[in-house]
Design goal:
binds adenosine-5'-triphosphate; 2 domains; Chromosome partition protein Smc; 202 residues; 5 helices; Rossmann fold; alpha+beta
């Protein structure tokens, strides 16, 4: 599963639709301070399901929407599309059983985020799981923010272990275990209620 293109529309400083072609080999992004290099990395993290505004250097998730400039009004939505070369069929067949897969995330003011995969509406969880299982998720150690190396060196062992688990592609399993535990707790609570009702009827 290889990323081939990132398209940003109204995302942070990228007000007009902008394509970043990710060719084979190494892609370097160079430019003066403040031109939007980190915004590109954040767009990648965001389309993979990042939900912490702080990871986007914002106070709320809507801060990723173009906020306006001296000559241009603010936008009402932001959209990031990630094109994936899926010729190795690593994406689950339910997503799109073809060589190319497009994941789109759009956030609209006062409405929130919506995701599409291969043109179909999908849940945030499905997109997060897809990338977590492929070890490229929003929290992937492959994406290194400014200052993150220092954070890593000073990190507690538990946090460092989380980074290793993400790299090993097992963080999706933790999420599934957590969801299974919640379902189990709910089922146990329901069973206890059924016992109460049976007792009252007896
Ligand atoms: P440096 O080299 O200094 O790290 P950079 O190239 O990584 O800079 P970014 O931090 O990606 O630059 O981009 C910062 C720019 O993005 C700033 O000019 C900021 O005003 C702009 N920006 C961030 N959020 C928004 C937004 N919601 N709307 C409009 N512009 C934004």
């Amino acid at each position: 599963m290889r990323f081939s293109k990132l398209r940003l529309t109204g995302f942070k400083s990228f007000v007009d639709p902008t394509d970043l072609i990710i060719a084979d080999g190494l892609t370097g992004v160079v430019g003066p301070n403040g031109c939007g290099k980190s915004n590109l990395l954040e767009a990648l993290r965001w389309v993979m399901g990042e939900n912490r505004p702080t990871a986007m250097r914002g106070g709320g998730m809507e801060d990723v929407i173009f906020a306006g400039a001296a000559t241009r009004p603010a936008r009402n939505f932001a959209e990031v599309a990630l094109h994936i070369d899926n010729s190795d069929r690593l994406a689950p067949a339910g997503f799109n059983d073809s060589d190319q897969l497009e994941i789109v995330r759009r956030i609209t003011r006062d409405v929130g985020s919506a995701y599409k995969a291969g043109g179909k509406d999908v849940r945030a969880r499905d997109v997060q799981m897809l990338f977590a299982d492929a070890s490229t998720g929003a929290h992937s150690p492959a994406l290194v923010r400014q200052g993150q190396i220092a954070e890593l060196i000073n990190a507690k062992p538990k946090n460092r272990r989380r980074i290793l688990e993400e790299a090993a592609g097992i963080s999706g399993l933790y999420q599934r275990r957590h969801e299974a535990e919640l379902k189990l707790n709910a089922a146990e609570a329901n069973l206890a209620r059924v016992d109460d009702v049976i007792e009252q009827l007896a």
